[in-house]
Design brief:
By secondary structure, this protein is α/β, with parallel strands linked by helices. The protein is 50% helix and 7% strand. The strands form 2 sheets. Strands 3-2-1-4-8-6-9 form a 7-stranded mixed β-sheet, with helices on both faces. Helix 7 packs across helix 12. The longest helix is centred in the C-terminal third of the chain and has 36 residues. The radius of gyration is 28 Å and the shape is globular. The chain starts with 13 loop residues before the first helix and ends in a 16-residue tail after the last helix.
Length: 638
């Protein structure tokens, strides 16, 4: 794919569009005031700046830096005298404030049990009664989810028990030392983690092979031309991001949505937490140019928040307090998100036809990767992602993931139930909840609303870190946020599916440390058996020696089984692609097989590096060291 699938609309031709910006009551410029010049190159005096654009010297520095820094010089060709009235009044709609209070979460399971034994109902439980409508509910999915999860747990337990027993047979003596017990415990945890991924992949393969689509709101009968009854806000929270990239992506989504019959039901909001004043000024200029280029004034809004409280979750909460009452749903973007207009409309139609849904999450496809590392990640996302996502959804059903972007949310229950409270104690495990998306999905489920992942809905895109170093920087932030979920695993009212998701988020990083310790213990044990003298008699009296016995065949069989569990899902993905006749999307069958082989080699080589760094991340987080959350490098040029 080409890198720039969404070219920006910045050009000198926007001068004509900018002249059509409506004047706003209270502005300092007269409607018919003659311009001093047709084109202003830079700002020569404060009188030449657009009325309402404050901090003239900052914008003059911005203009100089924009041109000298190699940015698009055509930005200097804007007819600034044509931007009339109060630009900040154009940037934001009228405020209609409401409150969004933090929801208290009881984290002590013993206290929750004691209250229930005494017949007392918490305020949270009272608020959950009747909060979600049952009209239009997909009947029977909860019973199906329970049975599927029980089967999944049984398969994992059986498989892990057999594997752990096999490992115990590789030890030379019938009795177990403390180090060997520790090895068995760690192995059981890690093998069950591998087994979970394997059986989820098998379930996804079964779903895609049979094209089985029960319990999915994506299959609800909907007339694509039917107008929407609701109002939807498309939100793009940003913080010190690349301005050109952000607004180009937003423009691509806007233009695609403008081609649909339901376009009038949508508004767009750029929610900026940018702290750099120069970059924030760039955002204001880019917003004005975008609105002028697509005639988006009154439909595309820009809000800059001075105090970056609670990062992205606080950014969205601020929007909901200001304008949440105006919209039935909100679609949350990330700074690198792009969504097709048909996909956006389809999400809104699903929400209208399925009133039980609180969140509907799409499965974004990775795009725009040029580096070798990025291409490998993009290929893995394209080849394996659909099957793995379908497998996770197989047992999650209406208690699914929310990844914080490329999803639609019902605003009223989100405002009522998903306000985040601070965790007791100090950071990194206390304080503000950093990985807020999993917690918000859990709170939505606790209130009786359903969270669905629509794995087979296309037109949803994102970007990935271009290098391994950038990925590890992102993982360092995510690790701290996910480890906070340890304190919420037994929160009152969370549903089983969401508790499992929180646990998997913790294990995504804690498993690296467990693998590291497991390998160290095995190395020490092998060294001890090699160096130390053999023991022929146990501590109990015995007339006959106990000869040590080694069973390398058990070790080989166990290693082979582990390799199969790790790599068989990739082969299953290949079979699904061939069955669906999609090999041409990967250049043909032979290039697809070669790509899978190369991806296996690269991922195998990178696995110990990731394990080492993720282990460090877990250790330093548990030691109390926190990190600063900054903008993510999203493209190869950065």
């Amino acid at each position: 794919m080409t890198k720039n699938i969404y070219p920006p609309s910045f050009s000198s031709a926007d001068n004509e569009s900018l002249s059509n910006i409506p004047a706003v009551a209270g502005g300092n410029c007269e409607a018919n005031a003659p311009a001093k010049s047709d084109v202003v190159v830079g700002w020569q005096s404060e009188r030449d700046t657009p009325s309402g654009m404050r901090d003239f010297t900052r914008r003059r520095r911005l203009h100089d830096g924009w041109v000298k820094g190699g940015r698009d010089p055509r930005l200097a060709q804007i007819d600034l005298n044509a931007v009339r009235g109060n630009i900040h009044a154009l940037a934001m709609p009228e405020l209609k404030r409401l409150s969004m209070l933090p929801n208290r979460v009881e984290r002590n399971p013993l206290l929750t049990l004691w209250r229930r034994l005494r017949g007392k109902t918490s305020n949270n439980e009272k608020g959950r009664v009747g909060s979600a409508s049952t009209e239009g509910s997909i009947v029977g999915w909860r019973a199906t989810a329970t049975s599927r999860r029980l089967v999944l747990i049984a398969l994992i337990i059986i498989q892990t028990t057999i594997a752990t027993w096999s490992l115990s047979n590789t030890f030379p003596y019938p009795w177990l030392k403390a180090s060997e017990i520790a090895i068995l415990v760690l192995f059981a945890i890690l093998f069950s983690w591998i087994s979970l991924g394997f059986w989820s992949a098998v379930a996804g393969f079964w779903m895609l092979w049979r094209r089985k689509s029960e319990f999915t709101c994506a299959d609800l009968p909907i007339d694509e031309r039917q107008p929407l009854r609701s109002r939807i806000a498309v939100l793009m929270p940003i913080c010190n991001e690349d301005v050109t990239r952000v607004f180009a992506g937003l423009e691509a989504s806007y233009r695609s949505l403008a081609e649909t019959p339901q376009f009038a039901s949508f508004d767009f909001f750029i929610l900026s937490d940018t702290g750099d004043p120069v970059r924030q000024a760039e955002e204001e200029i880019a917003w004005a140019q975008l609105c002028a280029g697509v005639q988006g004034f009154g439909r595309i809004f820009y809000r800059h928040r001075r105090n970056n409280v609670r990062r992205k979750s606080g950014n969205i909460a601020d929007f909901l307090r200001r304008w949440g009452r105006d919209y039935d749903y909100m679609i949350v973007f990330d700074a690198d998100s792009v969504m097709a207009g048909e996909t956006v409309v389809r999400l809104a139609q699903m929400m209208e036809h399925y009133p039980q849904a609180g969140i509907i999450q799409t499965a974004p496809t990775t795009v725009n990767c040029d580096s070798l590392f990025g291409r490998v990640q993009q290929f893995a996302s394209r080849a394996y992602g659909p099957m793995l996502t379908a497998g996770q959804r197989f047992w999650q059903l209406g208690e699914g993931y929310y990844w914080g972007h490329n999803a639609i949310i019902r605003t009223a229950p989100f405002i009522k139930h998903c306000g985040l409270s601070r965790l007791p104690g100090h950071a990194p495990l206390g304080g503000e909840i950093l990985s807020h998306d999993f917690v918000e999905a859990s709170l939505m489920g606790r209130a009786g609303w359903e969270v669905w992942v629509v794995h087979d809905l296309g037109g949803s895109y994102e970007e990935s870190p271009p290098t391994l170093a950038d990925e590890l920087k992102r993982d360092r932030r995510w690790c701290q946020g996910n480890l906070q979920h340890l304190r919420l695993l037994f929160a009152d009212g969370f549903r089983g599916g969401h508790r499992a998701i929180l646990t998997m988020g913790v294990m995504a990083y804690a498993s690296a440390l467990l693998w590291f310790v497991f390998l160290i213990l095995n190395t020490v044990e092998l060294a001890a058996q090699t160096v130390l003298p053999l023991v022929y008699f146990s501590s109990e009296p015995s007339l006959f020696p106990l000869w040590p016995r080694w069973h390398p065949e058990w070790a080989v069989a166990l290693l082979t089984t582990t390799v199969v569990l790790l790599f068989l899902p990739k082969l299953l993905s290949l079979l699904v692609i061939v069955k669906d006749r999609q090999t041409q999307l990967f250049g043909g069958l032979l290039p697809l097989c070669v790509s899978i082989s190369l991806e296996i080699i690269v991922s195998t080589l990178l696995a110990p590096i990731r394990m080492w760094f993720h282990s460090q991340f877990v250790v330093v987080t548990l030691m109390g060291r926190q990190i600063k959350w900054g903008p993510q490098f999203r493209t190869d040029n950065e």
